[in-house]
Amino acid sequence: xxxxxxxxxxxxxxxxxxxxxxxxxxxxxxxxxxxxxxxxxxxxxxxxxxxxxxxxxxxxxxxxxxxxxxxxxxxxxxxxxxxxxxxxxxxxxxxxxxxxxxxxxxxxxxxxxxxxxxxxxxxxxxxxxxxxxxxxxxxxxxxxxxxxxxxxxxxxxxxxxxxxxxxxxxxxxxxxxxxxxxxxxxxxxxxxxxxxxxxxxxxxxxxxxxxxxxxxxxxxxxxxxxxxxxxxxxxxxxxxxxxxxxxxxxxxxxxxxxxxxxxxxxxxxxxxxxxxxxxxxxxxxxxxxxxxxxxxxxxxxxxxxxxxxxxxxxxxxxxxxxxxxxxxxxxxxxxxxxxxxxxxxxxxx
Amino acid sequence: xxxxxxxxxxxxxxxxxxxxxxxxxxxxxxxxxxxxxxxxxxxxxxxxxxxxxxxxxxxxxxxxxxxxxxxxxxxxxxxxxxxxxxxxxxxxxxxxxxxxxxxxxxxxxxxxxxxxxxxxxxxxxxxxxxxxxxxxxxxxxxxxxxx
Lengths: 349, 147
What we know:
- The structure holds 2 protein chains of 2 kinds.
- Chain A has helices at residues 13-23, 52-57, 96-113, 158-164, 170-183, 187-191, 197-212, 222-235, 238-241, 299-306, 313-326, 336-343; strands at 2-9, 28-34, 38-41, 61-64, 72-74, 78-86, 118-121, 125-128, 133-142, 145-153, 216-217, 250-254, 257-266, 269-278, 281-289.
- By secondary structure, chain A is of the alpha+beta class.
- In chain A, strands 7-8-9-10-6-2-1-11 form an 8-stranded mixed beta sheet, sandwiched between helices. Chain A has a 4-stranded antiparallel beta sheet with strand order 12-13-14-15. In chain A, strands 4-3-5 form a 3-stranded mixed beta sheet.
- In chain A, helix 4 (158-164) packs antiparallel against helix 5 (170-183) and helix 10 (299-306) packs antiparallel against helix 11.
- The two termini of chain B are 27 Å apart.
- Chain B has helices spanning 34-40, 87-90, 94-97, 122-143; strands spanning 2-3, 6-7, 13-14, 19-24, 27-32, 43-46, 54-55, 60-66, 69-74, 79-84, 106-110, 120-121.
- Chain B has one domain (2-143): CATH 2.40.50.100.
- By secondary structure, chain B is of the alpha+beta class.
- In chain B, the strands form 3 sheets. Chain B has a 7-stranded antiparallel beta sheet with strand order 7-10-11-5-4-3-12. A 3-stranded antiparallel beta sheet of chain B has the order 6-8-9.
- Chain B contains 4 helices and 12 strands.
- The model of chain B has no long low-confidence stretch (mean pLDDT 93).
- Chains A and B meet through helix 3 and strand 9 of A and helix 1, strand 6, strand 8, strand 9 and helix 2 of B.
């Protein structure tokens, strides 16, 4: 199989080349970093989740990929590995679980060679010994190929990542920034320095060769670049960028953690919520809005009551209701179902 | 029929990409098989396409996502999509919970009933899928260094 060690490419090419190879049914390992900062949104992500004005002002281009996962901020501090395999290749894993397990192994080995102990966490996370996410992975079927992609985080610009996302208010942005810092790590954070880029690439290629078999270094054929150019236009088109997406407002952080913003207009006023969910369990809940609440100082009790509950309507509603009755709270025109409406907005009850 | 813990209702048609079809007159309801949903894991998104879309047999026409992986859905027959299971926009895991019932994906008005001959049913499907599952198990054992 061929390996294309592409170094640093202008913005979108770092994401376009693998799309082109897959459409051409060409198996390969691609290793690449974007020269310019770029926002890549997942196939199912809504463009409204991106702060378009901020991106334009700061020269950050935006593209939708044909793969899964959330909105990501990419820059030269990430080294991307992209595996393109035909579906009928015996190396192509049969299930999503096996696929991530199999292709995360070379990445874990690479981190190991750098002196960072990591482990695989199903479905698709690579965590440090302290349980922080250190690689983001995703993929999908493109044409008759499967495409697995991920990135080694040499360093990560947490601040710009939180800036490029459209958030309801600064409170949410602060929460997201803190949650990312608490749950993500990078090579630089682990080692205290950034290792030499080409060394990391060599480790990656050697480790992937153990799974994929011998890898032959090659120059990218001109046809691949031509197709990448065409796809660049297609993926940046208004139609594709604004495609209809499911109604969910959730920011996945990784390592099983996501933050969900919700709002609901109840008879007694607007309720806003921010819920941090870890592995399906509510870790924390913030509730605010313009509704009346007595006694005001007891509002945090509602939030505390749901921590540790499964992220399920019945469980959350019961926990809220218990605190409400126990503390004789008063919320004119707002009941616990209204708060659940905000928490579970866009999700089935 | 049951094979290796996977359930396959006898009255359905199946393709070799692990999708099923229920035929009622010229209306074909389709979805993912028990095997397909277990391989995918919990679905987090199902693409809600617009009714009226023309689809071709064995061609991808919509997508689903599980575990940050986008999988494609292939049409069982050619024709026009007349209904989409909109419940899946709010709860895509219905596909995991009830793949042959509430987790159906779309309904297609079939253009050519002759195309059903390209699908498998009953004993023919049983013969193919049992062989396919065993083949996949052997490949997985080889990839993971097992027997």
